[in-house]
Amino acid sequence: MQNTTDNNDKLAIVAYITLIGTLIAFFLNRDVRNPLVSFHVRQALGLWLLQFLLGYFIGAFDSWMISMSFWIFFIALFIYGIIGAVGKKMNEVPILGPFFQKLFSSIGE
Q: Which residue from 50, 90, 98 is spatially nearest to 74, judged by alpha carbons?
């Protein structure tokens, strides 16, 4: 028999699976607040929004090298976040993680 927190911990992984996954994890975490899920929702939301924002401007460049390095950078950050969620750790993504935690501090509070 699984504990409710174990089920909610899986929402931390779901948060990184598309922006819709982030929204699903956010809304399902509202009733029983799990700090691990809230942490990863903040991280994933920051990554998704930054990817969309920067991707718009990166798309203006007609260079596959710039586009490829952009995608590799974000894929690496998402994998880092997913590994932390699977391990049930609150590791901030490098460089941007502390900023995302401050910017979205009202989520999960």
A: 50
Residues 6+ apart with CB under 8 A from 13: 40, 82, 85, 86
61-81 b/e (C-beta count within 10 Å ≥ 16 → b): eeeeeeeeebeeebeebbebb
The pTM for the full model equals 0.88
Contacts 24+ apart (CB under 8 A), 88-96: 88/9, 88/12, 88/36, 90/35, 90/36, 90/39, 90/40, 92/43, 93/43, 93/47, 96/46, 96/47, 96/50
pLDDT tens for residues 10-27?
999 999 999 999 999 999
DSSP secondary structure code for residue 104 in this structure:
T
Residue with tokens 């391990």: 87
